[in-house]
Amino acid sequence: ALRDSCTAKAVKQNQRSWINLQPQASYKVAVLGAAGGIGQPLALLIKMSPLVSALHLYDIANVKGVAADLSHCNTPSQVLDFTGNAELGNSLKGVDVVVIPAGVPRKPGMTRDDLFNINAGIVKNLIEAVADNCPDAFIHIISNPVNSTVPIAAEVLKQKGVYDPKRLFGVTTLDVVRANTFVAQKKNLKLIDVDVPVVGGHAGITILPLLSKTKPSVSFTDEEVEELTVRIQNAGTEVVEAKAGAGSATLSMAYAAARFVESSLRALDGDGDVYECSYIQSELTELPFFASRIKIGKKGVEAVISSDLQGLTEYEEKALEALKPELKASIEKGLAFANKQT
Ligand code: NAD
Ligand code: LMR
Asked: Signal sequence span per UniProt (predicted)?
């Protein structure tokens, strides 16, 4: 009898996954660029979400194997694969959240803007399909240069007559993840407690961590502010150089993107307490797109947390002014690209 009861317990445990994943909701998520360095681990992390019922994996190649592999995990969501332009539309039908990590990554010596010529066209093509097939979905743009690809996406959605600025998000979560990690390390804080808002954009000096707004409240010397700010701004390059030609951040990016997906799904599911930083259409500054802390609700961006830009230190004020010309130029480059094509 004891053996039977132990066996029953083991079977029950095996039927569950290794984390508690009882289905809790039934959202559909599509990942475009799902066979890539970010796409694969991101798909795995989304596969682990109890809020997801269907995971649609799209890429131009190699996605069948990724989907077959993932589909064996005993978590609730069904995994479907879609390959090539002819299957793009179907990958998007009925989807609640579309995540876009499609495109080429940097190699050492390149800026994110050096990716523009290839990635701008990829994002434009994918967003056209999103507009045609799931215009109400939350759209998460990861493909670089984010400072330009988000304005491109906005213009394409406008041209298609379906633009809702509340549902278009540039993913800057990795900047927050890095800022939290580096600040916790430097100040010997418990990681779980640390939250640093990061505003501006997602490239070099346009990434502005507001260290004075760190929670829990913590004081930094001028040297610490300079060192941490520069490290956070160059963290992407730190990974590109360490990978020495094999690409840019993929695992930490997948982790950050999965956090942003989970936050979006919680917001869609009615959680009224969801805050993230994201690069969105914004009136917080004179720039039409700007990353800041936002509250996400069922319909997308519910509020922009404007208080983060009040009471900045002199260092932060100066850095904010310094980033504006570069961010403005990247936005205008994206808008010009999208409009030139029509
Ligand atoms: P990768 O080359 O490993 O993967 C990219 C994938 O996109 C590949 O599987 C490729 O087949 C696919 N792809 C190419 N063209 C496509 C198209 N038209 N439709 C669908 N899929 C297409 O690159 P990666 O390391 O995964 O990086 C992807 C992008 O994410 C890069 O632009 C990179 O700069 C960016 N990125 C952004 C952040 C961020 O914080 N926002 C962080 C890291 C990387
Ligand atoms: C990052 O911040 O890691 C990404 O934007 C990729 C890159 O090119 O640095």
From this structure: none
